[in-house]
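To whoever is on call:

I kicked off a structure prediction for a single chain this morning and the downstream step that reads the tokens threw a length-mismatch warning. I double-checked the sequence; it's 150 residues and nothing unusual in it as far as I can see. Pasting both halves so you can look.
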Amino acid sequence: MKIFITGYSGFIGHYLTENLSKTYNVVKINLRGFENYDDIKKKALFESLNDNDVIINCAASLRPKNQSDLYINTIFPIFLCDIIKEKKLKVKLIHFSSLNILQNKLKDKYTNSKKKSDQVLIKNDVLLIRLPLIIEKDESKIIKQVGQIS
């Protein structure tokens, strides 16, 4: 099985890459600067998607400050979904999101950006995983809270 992972340098992506690489062929992509690529370069970069069984999108900016951060949270996941449909790929897209989007009173940039992409992805054949927090198994302590629920 071949797995394509975005956001491999983040907390979730790093953990998945490290562990899945032990059993599967994992292809990683760094999204820094990706929003500045022209459409031809973007599509060429994803020609390798044809050979994958699963795409896992872990890329996210928890504290978006600029257009690049918002691109990663909003436009990129939709771009992935569109490429899969356009090329009629037989690949499963797994997208990590946040429980924040289910909280109507949250209006911060992170929540709004994730909400926009989720509204499109949920209408397609995408597995959405919404994590409220992450617990490190070995030490049984909270390592990083992803999003905030009040």
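Update from on-call: the warning came from a stale cache, not from the record. Cleared it. Sanity check on the structure: DSSP finds four helices and seven strands in the chain.
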